Task: inverse folding
């Protein structure tokens, strides 16, 4: 691996050349929805099952909701509305704080170690099963609209009747005039803002279905990923408004440090962060449109709206701008669930530690379907009725090398009390007391008296490492 | 370019250190500022107050961009006026960008195997820095000609026929590296090259 051969050098040059060619041609295949056979017995039995709308955003850190008060002037009225009318999970984490692996974990219910999308370069395996297939087989009408962003050629997606996504900028998409691939067809979208455009398409898709048929829509937004461009009418709306103060170890131009610069956030930290919040406000507005539609629909009481994100984001904590690290701000994501007929005490919070790999089994569980053995997550549906902090004693985090981002491959174990991280190279382990040090500023590893807990956590981490495969 | 511009008179027997000191100062500045940044980031307690920490770090990060991207504006003309040949002036003009690239590669050894760390020197920031220094060198040579021959020396078409394309090419490289869509185009090209060489990097 460490010695370059002449063949490899030539291959590198060829790869660069191929990139130029690809950039000029655009996608040519893939992106088709593939229907799966419907099990008539299952479908008949599940006509009354709830419908699902899963709204997946990008890089939205868990504490950036108006209701938390972390950023005094931040407004997220519609996200807060989901929380007020449903349940908010306060310890929701992703198993890998990176777009592609996390997205694959959401749809498969598997750790990156198993589904194989370990970074933003490894291909999605088209044989990976997703929850769409199980739901479609049970008579659900399923659709995927929005950011797919998994490496490799755009796959055909089994179990959905509509697959709308984008491939521009390596699948990251762009905020304005973002061309889409609609059921495999390249489609220019001039004059559009991507959050609004995707929401328009989602509403069209919802309106086109049989109101009696249960549905599952994943609406995956580009927002609030960099370059953090809000809709035109919201640009500057937070000028002079107090948002989250920069952490003590953060500073204005930390975005230019090599550990941060590849995140694509070069610029004054305060300015970039303000755009992040404005972009989030624009996303919130689109979510309000979805909620309004659902509330006016015949299935309003039986529609589960789930809002979450693929990872969090550091805005100066640990002098980091970005994600990937195992720290809470990077790995924690919002998880809001609204289900009018299924949640008896709306407006409550749940402290049980839940993961992105829990989404797939939770949807299947709420639909009353069996959970395939390949799924490594656990349904949080029972937690909608009552909290259980002992539900999962510890969660596992894994991160794989993702060049050129300066984060060593690592694995971590997170309990309600501790965060313990082991790096594969370059850095010593880290230990943080989560209760007293929620921003993970005080590394306790090596401190006298921590030997026992480090030993216990290291052993537990080794066990989780095995189980994740 | 060398053949075109060698008619410029140069002082006899230039002293190597005297000639090269502008480049050395630029390189030393980058190294010192890098050490300050590395020592200080994430450690406000080392500075006594958050305000001092932020001021020092911001100044260090921004100040480092000067020699990394613009050193040749000074290094090239001073070295040339002190008698450096064009190849030596080019070495001096590019030394800051190359130093920046090497520092980045060494730093990335913490995170990546040696071959991947070596590939790091082709990153968009370094490529842009090289381009910028080339562009600045072209400007610097025009200045040298003016200093040595006055406005009359600027009247030769051969100077502009070489300096303008080189300057445009250099600044275009810088534009592609860090400005055009935030440098994302070169970034993706660089990553494609990485994948061809190292796969997914696991």
Result:
């Amino acid at each position: 691996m460490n010695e370059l051969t002449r063949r490899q050098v030539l291959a590198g040059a060829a790869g660069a050349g191929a990139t130029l060619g690809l950039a000029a041609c655009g996608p040519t295949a893939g992106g088709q929805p593939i229907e799966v056979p419907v099990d008539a017995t299952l479908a008949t039995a599940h006509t009354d099952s709830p419908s699902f709308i899963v709204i997946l955003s990008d890089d939205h850190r868990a504490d950036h909701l108006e209701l938390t008060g972390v950023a005094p002037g931040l407004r997220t009225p519609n996200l807060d509305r989901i929380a007020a009318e449903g349940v908010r999970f306060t310890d929701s984490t992703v198993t890998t704080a990176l777009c592609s692996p996390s997205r694959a974990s959401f749809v498969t219910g598997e750790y990156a170690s198993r589904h194989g999308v370990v970074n933003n370069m490894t291909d999605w395996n088209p044989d990976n099963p997703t929850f769409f297939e199980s739901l479609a087989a049970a008579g659900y009408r399923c659709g995927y609209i929005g950011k797919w962003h998994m490496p490799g050629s755009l796959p055909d997606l089994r179990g959905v009747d509509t697959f709308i996504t984008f491939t521009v900028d390596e699948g990251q998409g762009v905020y304005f005039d973002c061309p889409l691939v609609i059921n495999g067809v390249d489609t220019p979208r001039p004059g559009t803002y991507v959050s609004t455009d995707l929401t328009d398409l989602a509403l069209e898709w919802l309106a086109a279905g049989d109101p009696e048929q249960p549905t599952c829509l994943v609406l995956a937004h580009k927002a609030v990923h960099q370059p953090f461009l809000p809709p035109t009418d919201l640009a500057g709306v937070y000028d002079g408004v107090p948002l989250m103060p920069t952490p003590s170890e953060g500073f204005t131009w930390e975005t230019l440090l090599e550990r941060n610069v590849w995140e694509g956030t070069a610029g004054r930290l305060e300015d970039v962060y303000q755009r992040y919040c404005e972009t989030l406000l624009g996303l919130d507005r689109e979510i309000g449109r979805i909620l309004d539609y659902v509330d006016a629909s015949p299935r309003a009481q039986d529609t589960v709206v789930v809002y979450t994100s693929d990872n969090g984001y550091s805005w100066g904590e640990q002098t980091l701008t970005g994600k990937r690290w195992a720290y809470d701000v990077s790995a924690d994501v919002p998880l809001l669930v609204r289900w009018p007929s299924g949640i008896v005490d709306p407006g409550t919070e749940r402290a049980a530690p839940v993961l992105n790999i829990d989404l797939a089994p939770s949807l299947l569980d709420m639909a009353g379907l069996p959970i395939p053995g390949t799924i490594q997550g656990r349904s949080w549906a029972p937690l909608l009725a009552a909290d259980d902090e002992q539900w999962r004693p510890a969660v596992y985090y894994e991160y794989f090398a993702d060049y050129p981002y300066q984060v060593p491959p690592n694995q971590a174990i997170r309990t309600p009390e501790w965060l313990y991280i082991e790096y594969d190279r370059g850095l010593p382990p880290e230990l943080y007391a989560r209760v007293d040090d929620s921003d993970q500023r005080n590394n306790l590893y090596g401190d006298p008296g921590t030997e026992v807990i480090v030993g216990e956590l290291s052993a537990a981490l080794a066990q989780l490492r095995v189980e994740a495969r | 370019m060398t053949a075109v511009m060698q008619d410029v008179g140069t002082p006899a027997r230039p002293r190597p250190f005297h000639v090269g000191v502008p480049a050395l100062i630029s390189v030393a500045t980058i190294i010192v500022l890098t050490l300050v940044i590395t020592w200080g980031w994430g450690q406000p307690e080392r500075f006594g107050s958050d305000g001092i920490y932020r001021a020092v770090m911001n100044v260090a990060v921004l100040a480092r961009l000067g020699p990394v991207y613009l050193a040749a504006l000074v290094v090239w003309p001073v070295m040339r006026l002190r008698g450096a040949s064009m190849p030596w002036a080019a070495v001096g003009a590019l030394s800051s960008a190359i130093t920046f690239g090497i520092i980045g590669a060494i730093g990335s050894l913490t995170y990546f195997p040696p071959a991947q760390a070596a590939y790091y020197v082709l990153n968009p920031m370094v490529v842009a820095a090289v381009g910028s220094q080339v562009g600045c060198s072209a400007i610097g040579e025009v200045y040298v000609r003016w200093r040595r021959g006055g406005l009359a020396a600027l009247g030769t078409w051969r100077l502009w026929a070489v300096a303008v394309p080189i300057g445009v090419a250099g600044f275009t490289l810088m534009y592609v590296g860090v400005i055009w869509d935030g440098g994302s185009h070169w970034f993706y090209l660089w990553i494609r090259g990485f994948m061809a060489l190292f796969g997914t990097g696991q």
